[in-house]
Inverse folding.
């Protein structure tokens, strides 16, 4: 590929398939596809190609596979782990799916829609809404991430407690396999027991087994009422007990249950304008609770008030404020959603997107905190996240007196402390962000040899030449 | 294996692992494990072995794999397709998991339980109930089927509309692989994005890729109120419209939506004692609707009455009766649940467990009916099932004047007509019962070559010697 003539020949071949306008070879044109949005990974691609149809993807893959050229599938390029950028070799070709952004169909009576991989998530939420349905996948990057990437990384987000991860929202897939064959698995069936469920291999595979080109997604009844509160609790264990209490009282109406430490709120109040403490006095821990119901009216609010009143009376919570208006609801959510930004404004941090069984979250927080304090006495723990999913963003900020560089030098050791605690609690070192490049080495320490070998065997079977997104998820 | 000495050596080896009491070689002892409960498949095993632990399963599989002896994994042996019985060669060994029936643990705060493969489904429902939780998998055979089999066949049942199939109810698996290695994938995590999700390969694989020995299952809040009605509608299309109307009004409280034709009810009234028509006049189609809510009280009943009242007023339904008591609720369900028995009492029938997108069910019924009528003018269509899942039990009974034998001779041709219509509607020829032996040949006609080849490649990778449940799902 360093051979100029060979590259020219390739580019001509790609242009013949997708058109000259959809192949980028100049550095400036390639750049947005070579670098990740967090500015952590800087690759160099032989070319960037943007096919406009499944058939074009298949022909591009066939051409590249025939020449044994590595392929980096890419959607909105919003990976948190460098999963969608090429390496620095200049030999890989980025296949970007953004031009494939058609909604092929909405079947409201079946509660499904069939969409192409390059559809932006927010657009799909709007499409569902237009048909009076909910597509519940929702996350920070929804304005630019694309559904193919969401599925390839099994994206989580704020709807998981009630609706599950991306994996649970997909009924069928169309995939271009590593040899350029098209697998049409676009079934829209709620029941189909005719052999191995192959779609689950491609969901969460981060493009290492093939390129998802289209999907059948599930739609749900729209929530017609919501009730939101901020509740102060003594500690994560009290938060856990409150979750069980509420689920007992209102069942699966609990759609949001976000744990927030006082440290987080202090950062938010310090750095984010127009935020204020909902309570007169400071508490050590908080939970943002949201209930939803598919019926309209005040029944949900009444149910919530009663349940929280009973919780207060029983001493389960220290204080609580139910949002009295949509404005106040947004104010509460702003506290939760500004934590990352506030943490960034406060200085560098080492982040951990980890999960444990919901019941073990208090132990995770206690033990990781104690062990870190022993080795890194100055570290500040900024812990928050989806308690209802057992998924905590267990972030660590440097102390004011520490140098950023020195702090970063410690990140391996900090990761190790946190991940060992996570492992001992039966947890995962990547709850919702995937492995990408970032954790492709690390995972080898935290997965059994049996499981790694099964993963490698599947990879060898479906991608024998190792051409699909090499270096991500599994090292060769 | 026809060699007596070789068989004796094998049996000694098995006894050394599991104890002499847990290896059956005499015909009378083997018989219950060699024949299916519908008395359709009659095999002969070299031996039946009942390991008591995962370690014993692993050692048994290692022994058998080393000698290249085929293995038939078996749970409660309630397969509808001969999926759990040996062939007639006398060379296969049945590995029955029934002795592995411990609940390893219940984590109520995580809403999970970890159970062994041999646990009877009804026992697990009770275990969940004792912890004030719901395990929603529910089906006819629940008193004798075992969870390992439920997962291996991705069992459906009556809870699918609200809770999904077995696949959706499992968070982690422990599997003994075809070489006797144990894969410990018993994770209890709601989020874990660290590579390929291997558990989904084993769910629904009907024991052809390994033996599931334990699982982490999801638990849910218990329903605290229910409301049930029988509704008469003009046709399947009206039933479909009613489903959309109700979901719009009460959201996911719709937990049951069973379509029943008049032909079905007539059979029930004729053959099942203590059943009666809920309405004064006969209608052509009926729906059994059930709503559930995790809160107690009369709110749900009021919601239902209003919604059905509005539906009646708008001419969406012809008549309706809401159950006024638990006794009446059971009476309504008895009508639905007696259909198979009534059909059996009426004579032989050809059954089809098929699915299509929910929106296409009316078309399925219309078109299959019309095409069958053309070729088999005497055939009686007995159609009923889970409309909310797009899963219809599209059964055909013989006319009174036809001979059973002649009718059965036509079954291949009848299947063909029905399956071709199903295929043209993007449906599945096995919605919830799996393939087993029954449909292992048929499926080749209804799946793409690409998909079949991927399935075969996975099979070769995980079970290179083809020892796991040969002849089921995929022919060699």
């Amino acid at each position: 590929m360093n051979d100029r003539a060979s590259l020219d020949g390739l580019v001509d071949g790609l242009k013949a398939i997708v058109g000259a306008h959809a192949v980028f070879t100049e550095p400036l044109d390639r750049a947005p596809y070579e670098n990740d949005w967090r500015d952590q990974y800087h690759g160099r691609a032989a070319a960037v190609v943007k096919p406009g149809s499944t058939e074009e993807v298949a022909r591009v893959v066939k051409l590249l596979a025939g020449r044994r050229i590595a392929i980096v599938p890419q959607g909105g390029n919003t990976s948190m782990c460098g999963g969608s950028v090429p390496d620095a070799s200049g030999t890989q070709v980025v296949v970007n799916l953004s031009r494939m952004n058609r909604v092929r169909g909405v079947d409201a009576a079946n509660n499904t829609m069939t969409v192409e991989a390059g559809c932006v998530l927010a657009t799909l939420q709007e499409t569902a809404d237009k048909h009076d349905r909910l597509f519940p996948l929702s996350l920070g990057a929804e304005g630019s991430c694309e559904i193919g990437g969401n599925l390839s990384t099994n994206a989580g987000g704020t709807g998981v407690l009630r609706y599950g991860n991306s994996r649970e929202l997909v009924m069928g897939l169309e995939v271009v396999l590593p040899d350029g064959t098209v697998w049409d698995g676009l079934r829209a069936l709620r029941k189909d027991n005719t052999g191995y469920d192959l779609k689950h291999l491609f969901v969460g595979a981060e493009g290492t087994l093939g390129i998802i080109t289209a999907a059948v997604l599930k739609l749900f009844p729209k929530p017609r009422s919501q009730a939101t509160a901020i509740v102060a609790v003594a500690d994560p264990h009290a938060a856990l007990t409150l979750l069980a209490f509420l689920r007992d009282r209102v069942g699966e109406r609990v759609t949001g249950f976000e744990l927030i430490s006082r440290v987080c709120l202090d950062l938010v109040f310090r750095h984010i304008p127009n935020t204020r403490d909902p309570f007169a006095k400071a508490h050590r821990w908080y939970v943002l609770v949201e209930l939803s119901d598919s019926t309209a009216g005040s029944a949900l609010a009444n149910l919530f008030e009663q349940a929280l009143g009973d919780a207060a009376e029983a001493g389960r919570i220290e204080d609580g404020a139910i949002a009295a208006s949509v404005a106040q609801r947004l104010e509460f959510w702003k506290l939760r959603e500004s934590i990352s930004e506030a943490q960034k404004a406060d200085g560098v941090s080492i982040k951990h997107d980890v999960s444990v069984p919901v019941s073990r979250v208090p132990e995770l927080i206690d033990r990781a905190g104690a062990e870190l304090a022993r080795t890194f006495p100055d570290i500040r723990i900024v812990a928050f996240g989806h308690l209802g999913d057992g998924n905590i963003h267990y972030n660590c900020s440097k102390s004011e007196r520490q140098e950023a560089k020195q702090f970063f030098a410690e990140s391996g050791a900090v990761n190790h402390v946190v991940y060992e605690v996570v492992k001992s609690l039966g947890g995962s070192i990547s709850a919702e962000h995937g492995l990408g490049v970032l954790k492709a080495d690390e995972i080898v320490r935290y997965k059994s040899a049996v499981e790694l070998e099964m993963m490698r065997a599947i990879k060898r079977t479906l991608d024998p030449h190792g051409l699909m997104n090499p270096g991500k998820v599994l090292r060769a």
About this structure: The mean pLDDT of chain A is 95. Chain A touches chain B through 95 residues (CB under 8 Å). The two ends of chain A are 21 Å apart (CA to CA).
